[in-house]
Write a structure and sequence with these properties.
The chain has five helices and twelve strands. The chain is of the alpha+beta class and about 280 residues long.
Length: about 280
């Protein structure tokens, strides 16, 4: 590394891209900072035209400065897309100076734009590492990260809504099933537990036979011992379809008045023919 006089307003230091040139004093806008120098190469000579390195500074189509020599401190100035200095080329004198285009504060790195050809050939393939490009990349990375987080939050929210809908659907199905079950229990309970009067009425209907008497206009009377008369039902039939043959029940024997504690009515089931004979 070449020695630099303390009177110079710059020094060589470490930068994000390697080594760089930094201001040690405040440099005003328009100040000529340093000269870019080195051997002149003539492109018409095959020997000079065959030289290739990253420190070639083209003056004209013919003349080029080879700035790769160690004494050329200006070669440590790095490229920047938004620089604080620029190259002042003087083709007739075959000289190049680096001049400040804005005020440069102490500790700030000095940089200038290398040009489109150099950028495409050397910097674009590996990516520019200047402050402006780093800010752009950081901004893009932050935007990409924010977009990923947004998409992730959106997917998570969508999944939560879907899960909530499924949970509500399952809850509604469970409530519906529970309601149907309770309704079925109530219906069975209502069928099993009827009102007392209705139950007694149904029980009496099921146990009592429907009897109808046909006497051709008047009831048949029978004399009973002791002068007591009792009405006797002459004909009866159960509430069921008629059959060809009737089941006969033998008449009950007469009961003495002394054996009877109170007058009772006896019922004798007869056929319709017998009822007509009795009425005749």
């Amino acid at each position: 590394m070449p020695e630099i006089s303390s009177k110079k307003p710059y020094r060589i230091g470490r930068s994000p891209t390697g080594l760089g040139l930094f201001a040690t004093k405040r440099i005003k806008k328009g100040t000529r900072i340093i000269r870019y120098f080195g051997p002149l190469l003539d492109s018409k000579k095959k020997k000079d035209d065959a030289i290739e390195n990253k420190y070639l500074f083209e003056l004209t189509n013919r003349w080029t400065i080879d700035g790769s020599i160690r004494e050329n401190v200006a070669r440590y100035i790095n490229h920047a897309c938004k620089p604080n200095a620029e190259s002042d080329v003087r083709p007739r004198k075959r000289k190049v100076f680096i001049r400040a285009i804005k005020n440069i504060e102490p500790g700030e790195e000095i940089n200038y734009d290398y040009g489109t050809d150099y950028f495409k050939a050397y910097l674009k393939p590996i990516g520019c590492k200047c402050v402006a490009c780093e800010k752009k990349r950081k901004k893009k990375r932050a935007e990409a990260r924010a977009e990923r987080l947004r998409l992730k939050a959106k997917e998570q929210k969508k999944a939560e809504r879907k899960a909530q809908k499924e949970a509500e659907k399952r809850a509604a199905e469970r409530a519906k099933a529970k309601k149907a079950k309770e309704k079925g229990k109530k219906s069975n309970k209502a069928k099993l537990e009827l009102k007392p009067d209705r139950k007694r009425k149904l029980d009496s209907k099921s146990k009592t036979l429907t009897v109808r008497a046909k006497t051709a206009g008047r009831p048949v009377k029978r004399k009973v011992a002791g002068g007591v008369r009792a009405n006797v039902a002459v004909s009866a039939r159960r509430s069921r379809p008629k059959s060809t043959s009737s089941r006969m029940i033998p008449p009950q024997p007469a009961i003495a008045a002394s054996d009877m504690a109170a007058p009772e009515t006896s019922i004798t089931f007869v056929t319709p023919d017998e009822a007509q004979q009795a009425s005749g």
